[in-house]
């Protein structure tokens, strides 16, 4: 549910916080007091397009923040999907700046508008006479029918979707074979050449580094030889000086002599001998390296040719040996597919035929369930409309069918809600004939029927009572209160009957403060509610209207208890 709503710098609203209750909440106030601004603010949280004109005159930004409490799995799953904790308390904010910047946050994390809509759509459902009438769209009419059908349709639709996705994948594979024989032969020749070129080169990962190391040895051969020569001289000495080995041998001899008389230092003598043997081994290794340093021109040229070949392949097939070999595997698969295309196509066509037959079967089951559900929904909506003083209204769900080549993931059915409010007139598409007042009642009829299956915490109705009065207003109030027993309902109303059925009643007003007109909101006490309902009844409050208001309020409380 929506626990609180804070609005800052939106038109006449300076800084307003509304703490909302469970069940049926009503908002009333005089025309122009700012009721629509609250609905506009909520619409921003639903991801509606931001309009800079909403920002209060002279201010640099406007913001809306809402605190929700929810246990809906779909909301918690989406929080997790977007990298947030699965928390039951959700804080959503949106900020508009005069420079056009738009900021959305959910539990402190920046969100895009599409992400915001994904989170808020199951949290709030906003309905008004001129906005959010999604039910007029044929695609949403099918969704409404499926939702009313419950588990049976959901299972059948999921089974259909599973086959549909498999068939879609097969068709995509077949489409990849959509080429003529000349193109096929060209590709076979191209892939064959590329495969041979890469396989003959036979590069393995790590080889490039080895080749470059060898190149560096060849390029620096003279420098290496000079350093080795000097090292050898340092170890073995020359005509003018003794080398390290000769000096170490002398040290070893002298210490051996000392050890005869100082046996407690025998360990040190052994260590010196070890150093001598290690240095002798190093000296021999240096000589060996020096003797084997010469690289013949043929070997050096082979190394350079190999590097040139690799450079050429990298230009064609990948940035390194790994990418080149990955490309090789890819084109080998394509080559095999082309060589064996006739056999593969035959196999895919067989799978396509089998899946098409299965899809038709699943679609038929789905259609039958939908038509059964449609009859039940037609009866219930007509009954609801009759209670809303539309006894002559006719409603039916028209089915059209597409074939397996034109279907989508929803099935073979295209449904359209057909409606007429007048006896003797044939039903026509709902979006062609319904008026504003009729649409309000029709929408309420649908919501009253689907309240049990709608996975939405909060339903918001903006002046749904347009065009309604008299006994119908009482029925409207009862139906909104009925929805309020299973959902949080927030309703902006001009009808005293609807206001009297609210569990919580908020009064919206505007006053001049510090020379500026500002919108305010107040949760009314029972006594204040009586006066507000009396005002709605007759404008000027009288003893008669006050008594009437008390009776209406008592009636509303009795219904809700």
Describe the 3D structure:
With 561 residues, the chain is an alpha/beta fold. Among the domains are: 1-123 and 456-561, Rossmann fold; 199-335, no CATH class. Helices cover 56% and strands 17% of the residues. The chain is built from 19 helices and 15 strands. The strands form 3 sheets. It has a 6-stranded antiparallel sheet, covered by helices on one side. Strand 5 (89-97) and strand 6 (102-106) form a beta hairpin. Helix 11 (297-317) packs across helix 12. The longest helix is centred in the middle third of the chain and has 47 residues, at 341-387. The chain starts with a strand and ends with a helix.
What's a concise summary of this model?
This protein is α/β, with parallel strands linked by helices.
Strand segment count: 15
The CATH topology of the domain at 1-123 and 456-561 turns out to be Rossmann fold
Please list the strands of the largest sheet in the order they lie side by side.
Answer: 2-1-4-5-6-7
Discrete helix count = 19
Helix residue percentage: 55-70%
- Whole-Å distance between the termini? 20 Å
The largest pleated sheet is described as: 6 strands, antiparallel
In the CATH hierarchy, what is the architecture of the domain at 1-123 and 456-561 at level 2?
Answer: 3-Layer(aba) Sandwich
Strand content: 15-25%
């Amino acid at each position: 549910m929506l626990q609180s709503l804070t609005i800052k710098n939106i038109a006449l609203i300076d800084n307003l916080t509304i703490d909302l209750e469970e069940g049926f909440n009503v908002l009333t106030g005089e025309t122009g007091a700012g009721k629509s601004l609250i609905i506009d603010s909520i619409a921003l949280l639903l991801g509606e397009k931001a309009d800079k004109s909403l920002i209060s005159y002279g201010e640099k930004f406007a913001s809306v923040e809402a605190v929700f409490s929810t246990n809906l799995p779909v909301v918690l799953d989406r929080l997790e999907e977007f990298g947030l904790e699965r928390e039951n308390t959700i804080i959503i904010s949106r900020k508009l700046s005069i420079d056009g910047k738009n900021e959305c946050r959910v539990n402190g994390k920046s969100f895009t508008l599409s992400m915001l809509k994904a989170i808020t759509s199951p949290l709030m459902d906003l309905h008004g006479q001129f906005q959010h009438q999604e039910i007029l769209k044929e695609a949403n009419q099918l969704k409404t029918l499926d939702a009313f059908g419950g588990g049976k349709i959901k299972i059948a639709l999921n089974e259909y979707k599973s086959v549909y996705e498999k068939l879609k994948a097969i068709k995509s594979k077949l489409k990849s074979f959509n080429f003529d024989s000349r193109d096929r032969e060209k590709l076979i020749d191209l892939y064959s050449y590329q495969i041979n070129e890469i396989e003959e080169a036979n590069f393995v990962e790590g080889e490039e580094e080895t080749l470059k190391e060898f190149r560096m040895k060849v390029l620096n051969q003279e420098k290496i030889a000079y350093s080795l020569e000097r090292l050898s001289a340092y170890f073995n000495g020359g005509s003018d000086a003794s080398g390290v080995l000769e000096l170490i041998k002398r040290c070893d001899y002298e210490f051996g002599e000392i050890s005869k008389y100082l046996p407690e230092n025998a360990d040190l003598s052994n260590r010196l001998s070890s150093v001598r043997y290690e240095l002798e081994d190093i000296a021999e290794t240096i000589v060996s390296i020096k003797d084997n340093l010469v690289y013949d021109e043929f070997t050096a040229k082979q190394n350079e040719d190999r590097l040139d070949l690799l450079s050429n392949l990298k230009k064609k097939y990948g940035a390194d040996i790994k990418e080149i070999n990955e490309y090789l595997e890819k084109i080998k698969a394509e080559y095999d597919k082309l060589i064996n295309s006739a056999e593969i196509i035959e196999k895919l066509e067989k799978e396509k035929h089998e899946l098409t037959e299965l899809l038709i079967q699943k679609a038929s089951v789905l259609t039958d369930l939908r038509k059964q559900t449609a009859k039940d929904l037609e009866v219930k909506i007509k009954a609801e409309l009759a209670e809303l003083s539309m006894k002559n209204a006719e409603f039916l769900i028209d089915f059209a069918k597409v074939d397996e080549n034109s279907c989508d993931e929803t099935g073979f059915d295209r449904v359209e809600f057909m409606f007429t409010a007048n006896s003797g007139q044939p039903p026509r598409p709902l979006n062609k004939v319904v008026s504003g007042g009729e649409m309000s009642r029709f929408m309420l009829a649908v919501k009253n029927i689907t309240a049990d299956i709608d996975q939405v915490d909060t339903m918001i109705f903006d002046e749904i009572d347009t065009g309604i009065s008299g006994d119908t207003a009482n029925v409207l109030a009862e139906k909104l209160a009925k929805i309020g027993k299973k959902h949080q309902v927030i309703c902006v109303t001009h009808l005293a009957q609807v206001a009297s059925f609210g569990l919580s009643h908020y009064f919206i007003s505007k006053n001049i403060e510090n020379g500026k007109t500002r919108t305010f909101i107040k949760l009314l006490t029972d006594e204040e509610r009586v006066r507000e309902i009396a005002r709605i009844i007759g404008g000027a409050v009288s003893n008669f209207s006050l008594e009437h208001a008390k009776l209406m309020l008592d009636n509303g409380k009795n219904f809700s208890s």
